[in-house]
Specification:
With about 425 residues, the protein is α+β, with helices and mostly antiparallel strands. The chain folds into two domains: about 1-285, Putative xylanase fold; about 300-435, no CATH class. The protein has helices spanning about 1-20, 30-45, 50-55, 85-100, 105-115, 135-140, 165-170, 175-180, 185-195, 265-270, 310-320, 355-360, 370-375, 395-405, 425-430, and strands at about 25, 75, 145-150, 160, 200-205, 220-225, 235-245, 245-255, 260, 275-285, 300-305, 335-340, 340-350, 380-385, 415-420, 420-425. Strands 3, 4, 5, 6, 7, 8, 9 and 10 form an eight-stranded antiparallel β-sheet that branches. Strands 12-13-14-11-15-16 form a six-stranded antiparallel β-sheet, sandwiched between helices. The protein has a two-stranded parallel ribbon with strand order 1-2. A hairpin with a 2-residue loop joins strand 15 (about 415-420) and strand 16.
Length: about 425
């Protein structure tokens, strides 16, 4: 029964529930850094291109390869203290997406990063990661995150015919392929599906052109560097930056062992790399990707010290406290109520809040010294969701607050976790009482 309820909430709660369900490998410093960067960006960025602004925030961060190869289970890895060329671009892109949408929470960043890094925006094992940048570009364009900038005219005068098989031909170079040979046929099948495709690109001989000649390339564009190395499509990625009429590259450099904005021009850099042939160009579709976040969707978890609740008591408390009628029963299942354009769903989840989110956010409540202890002790939670895209946002918020307050009168309620904060039951109920 509870599995069906989890699936129901994943469908109803959309982005909030989806982000919380993603398995994430990160540290507290990573999540704090993301939220601080976004908060600072809202105050400081002004009109500066988002990719440039957030990219500069990572200058001098050490270059380290294979930071995503951790553990035996595929997880969303967030490691802002070490980056390779691809993860640098992905972190900057995810921050830029959050900035554009007005999002400031780590969970929003993780949701955007998942969409960027994995096929169809879903983590489904190692093979779902977009290992080749051709896959990355195709999938992110399909997901309406980027647009490939290309033309049949100059400067896109060269054509790449993709022939990739490096991963399937060199499995010993990849930790997960070494440990699970069953993944190799799946990777090979994805490679075969890509081979033979042709793409126009800008040859490196043209990268020394003027800004007018390279008008197709803008500051903040993502550039993938085409390579002639057998079995590969690209050898490096970074962010294009125009300075003093010349094109430069901001990237996580394996040669300089850190994230840099090269002082030498992109043209001079590329001339030194014999295997580099030119670049493909992608632009973030930030304005086109804008979403309406005012959907009237609210989600909270009332933490329980025992896997028990009383739906009849909840229904009675809602009547007594707020004159809200809910269906009452004693089967331990869910309560669903339609109130005009608003849908209210309340259900018992016999599991912990995923990814230790409640414990982490409890540490920020300096007004409640036992917040972390309470969060760590929970054994289940009541999930409350109020949705209604066409409903009045204020009315949906009021209903949400009232029902959460009544849920906190349950015998085993010890805290409430909502929107990146953990509150003491008495405090939350006292604040809610002002609506009576």
């Amino acid at each position: 029964m509870w599995i069906k309820l989890v699936l129901l909430f994943l469908l109803l709660c959309g982005i909030s529930a989806k982000a919380a369900s993603v398995p994430v490998q990160y540290t507290a410093s990573d999540s704090l850094a993301v939220e601080r960067l976004l908060e600072t960006g809202r105050k400081e960025r002004g009109d500066e291109n988002r990719m440039i602004y957030y990219g500069k925030k990572f200058l001098d961060v050490p270059y380290v390869a294979h930071t995503l190869e951790v553990g035996d289970e595929e997880k969303l890895v967030v490691n802002l203290s070490q980056m390779d060329c691809t993860t640098f671009v992905e972190y900057v892109a995810a921050l830029s997406m959050c900035d554009m949408k007005g999002q400031g929470r780590f969970r929003d960043f993780c949701d955007n990063l998942t969409r960027i890094r994995y096929r169809n925006g879903v983590i489904d094992g190692y093979a779902s990661r977009l290992h080749y940048f051709t896959w990355w570009g195709e999938d992110n364009e399909k997901m309406n995150i980027v647009e490939e900038i290309v033309s049949d005219e100059a400067p896109f005068t060269a054509v790449q015919t993709v022939q990739i098989d490096y991963m399937s031909s060199h499995p010993l170079l990849y930790k997960r392929l070494r440990s699970d040979a069953g993944l190799i046929p799946l990777i090979k099948e994805y490679e075969r599906a890509t081979n033979g495709k042709q793409y126009r690109y800008i040859p490196k001989s043209r990268l020394g052109g003027t800004r007018e000649q390279l008008a197709s390339v803008c500051s903040g564009d993502i550039v993938s560097i085409i390579t002639n190395k057998r079995g590969l499509d690209t050898s490096h990625v970074g962010i294009a930056v125009w300075q003093d009429g010349h094109l430069h590259l901001m990237h996580a450099s394996s040669l300089k062992k850190k994230v840099v904005l090269d002082s030498e021009t992109f043209y001079n850099y590329s001339k030194k790399q014999a295997s580099q042939l030119g670049i493909r160009v992608y632009r973030m579709k930030l304005d086109m990707n804008k979403e309406d976040n005012s959907t009237g969707a609210f989600v909270a978890s009332v933490l329980l010290s025992e896997n028990k609740w009383d739906t009849r008591k909840l229904a009675n408390d809602c009547i007594t406290d707020w004159n809200i009628e809910l269906p009452g029963n004693n089967d331990g299942g869910s309560l669903v109520a339609m109130m005009g354009d608003i849908t209210l769903v309340v259900a018992l989840m016999p599991t912990l809040v995923p990814n230790e989110e409640a414990e982490y956010y409890a540490s920020a409540n300096y007004m409640w010294k036992n917040a972390v202890e309470a969060a760590k002790s929970h054994k289940a939670h009541i999930l409350i969701s109020v949705l209604g895209k066409d409903a009045d946002l204020l009315e949906a918020g009021k209903l949400f607050t009232k029902v959460v307050s009544s849920c906190l009168k349950q015998d085993h309620a010890i805290a409430v976790y909502t929107d990146g904060a953990v509150f003491q039951p008495q405090f939350y109920r006292e604040v809610a009482s002002f609506m009576q």
